[in-house]
Specification:
Number of helices: 8
Strand content: 5-15%
CATH class: Alpha Beta
Mean pLDDT: 95
CATH architecture: 3-Layer(aba) Sandwich
Number of domains: 1
Number of strands: 8
């Protein structure tokens, strides 16, 4: 059974009442991937927006595998120390990673964030040498639209993430860079300028799905 682990921040963990891109991707793989698979991770909660705390609030579909490694306000700097044990304990085969906005916004600059990406990859491979990874650049968000220095850091980090993925890609542990839809619009694909609504969830899921389909022949074209 192929085991996917979503790794991310608030856009990945989601809030109670949301579907999340994890769910949209799971639906897509259920329809297109012919072999057994599941989503795994050491965490299963969503965020409760009324308390700003994790919650076990029911997901949209009771059959949806809840596992993930995502947290509200967490970034590469938080996940790099955790990923080795998470990969080892959950026996993950493919990491689907969407991180970076939190790092650049609060903790590290583009160069430091890129260094944490390298640490993350190294720790994941130490735990599972043949692991595969799909890395998502920082997607459009309202802060980048309103804060020019932050936008510059996002651009620089995304360039460095692409270089890192190319540098660290190997035949035994391939790294892919997902390509967010050029049509992703913070006014129509998010509910607050940052967090995806239903159409945004589909576009993020599509970016992961298309990367795996085109590079690894895994799944199929995204039709969500």
């Amino acid at each position: 059974m192929l085991r996917f682990m979503p790794v991310g921040d608030s856009m990945t963990i989601g809030s109670a009442g949301e579907h999340t891109w994890r769910y949209r991707l799971w639906q897509h793989l259920c329809a297109t991937y012919g072999d057994p698979f599941t989503l795994v991770g050491p965490r299963e909660t969503l965020r409760d927006p009324s308390t700003d705390e994790p919650t076990s609030y029911a997901y949209a579909d009771p059959d949806f595998p809840r596992g993930h490694l995502a947290g509200w306000g967490e970034g590469w700097c938080h996940m790099a120390p955790l990923i080795g044990e998470a990969v080892r304990s959950c026996r993950a085969d493919v990491l689907l990673v969407s991180l970076g906005l939190i790092d650049l916004g609060f903790y590290t600059n583009a160069e430091q964030t890129a260094a944490n990406v390298r640490t993350f990859v190294s720790e994941a491979r130490a735990a599972r040498p043949r692991i595969r990874m799909v890395l998502m650049p920082v997607i459009p968000n309202i802060r980048a639209q309103q804060d020019a220095p932050f936008a510059e850091q996002v651009t620089l980090f995304n360039e460095q993430l692409a270089k890192t993925a190319a540098d660290l890609d190997t035949p035994t542990s391939p790294l892919l860079l997902a390509t967010p839809s050029a049509s992703y619009d913070i006014h129509t694909d998010t509910y607050d300028g940052t967090h995806p609504n239903a159409s945004g969830e589909h576009k993020i899921a599509s970016a992961f799905a298309e990367a795996m389909w085109q590079s690894w022949d895994l799944g199929g074209p995204y039709e969500g």
